[in-house]
Write a structure and sequence with these properties.
This protein has 267 residues and is an alpha/beta fold. The chain has 11 helices and 8 strands. 40% of the residues are buried. It binds ligand PTJ.
């Protein structure tokens, strides 16, 4: 038996839940390095639970949301990607890649402030190739008055002046506040009925680790698209329908699981 503290080494690659365990490991290691808040472990567990109910795959409606999100980011005058501890631990390289393709800066914005966290996240993003990171100089931050949590402190050259903000894995109050100051919000949240999901303009109901590679792919496809085409994608997108269909996807999946479970239980 392995005595290695690195729990990932104990999980064989052919384990049916290898991917899921690998991401858990990233979150745990991220917490040890201060990248992830303690509460980030619970947030991840909640996400896993919703992901399970979505069959752990990107739904067709999530793919539509991804396309609308990319089109909105391209149409923006000044888009910003907000980064928290969980996203930095799960997919730093993909955040950097997306930021470079769509030309949107990364801004570290944390709910749980703790000494050393911003530096730890800055390091993981720099190691992943980030050249310009906002939200790192705490003395220069300005406040979003509509918000009372730590997330109110934003970079004057970032979220403060952005017209479109991409907010993966949020905690509810900020999307509402950003909407009040007339910003467009794109969220990634496995919970289709979280406050973030309901308030965002585009809600991608999917796991951030599956969403980002798809966003990068679509961003490459739409890179030279005309404004008319991008506007058309955004105009025909309906977030209310998205939430409805995402909930139906969960209901259908649970119904199927119930049927399959009872086949086993009968024998
Ligand atoms: O790093 P910080 O200090 O900014 O804190 C980050 C967390 C995530 C801890 C903080 O924002 C928080 O507490 O968030 P909540 O309120 O737990 O909400 C997180 C949402 O993200 C929940 O609705 C989860 O279902 C969802 N979620 C968790 N993991 C994923 C996810 N959505 C997409 N992909 C995931 N991997």
């Amino acid at each position: 038996m392995s005595t290695n503290n690195n729990q990932d080494h104990d999980v064989p690659k052919d384990h049916p839940r290898y991917e899921s365990l690998k991401y858990r490991h990233n979150i745990i290691e991220g917490m040890k390095k201060l990248i992830v808040a303690e509460a980030g472990l619970m947030a991840h567990g909640r996400g896993e639970c919703f992901d399970y109910m979505l069959g752990e795959k990107t739904s067709e409606i999530a793919k539509e949301s991804i396309e609308a999100a990319v089109a909105l980011l391209y149409l923006a005058k000044y888009p910003v990607i907000s980064v928290n501890g969980n996203t930095a631990a799960l997919c730093p390289k993909m955040l950097v890649e997306l930021s470079k393709i769509i030309n949107a800066p990364l801004e570290i914005n944390l709910f749980y402030r703790k000494e050393g966290r911003i530096d730890a996240i800055k390091k993981v993003l720099e190691d992943a190739g980030a050249e310009m990171i906002l939200g790192i100089n705490e003395t220069k931050m300005v406040e979003i008055e509509e918000l009372s949590s730590n997330r109110r402190n934003v970079d004057p050259n970032g979220i403060k002046i952005a017209d479109v903000v991409f907010v993966p894995l949020e905690d509810g109050d900020r999307t509402e506040a950003l909407k009040k100051i007339e910003k467009k919000v794109i969220a990634v949240d496995l919970n289709p009925i979280s406050r973030t999901s309901l308030w965002a303009d585009v809600t991608i109901v999917d796991n951030i680790v599956r969403t980002l590679p798809k966003m990068i792919k679509i961003a490459n496809i739409l890179k030279n698209a005309e404004e008319k085409e991008l506007k058309n994608i955004v105009e025909k997108y309906d977030n209310k329908r998205n939430i409805q269909v995402s909930l139906d996807t969960i209901i259908q999946y649970i119904k199927k699981q119930k049927k399959d479970a009872f086949k086993i239980l009968k024998d």
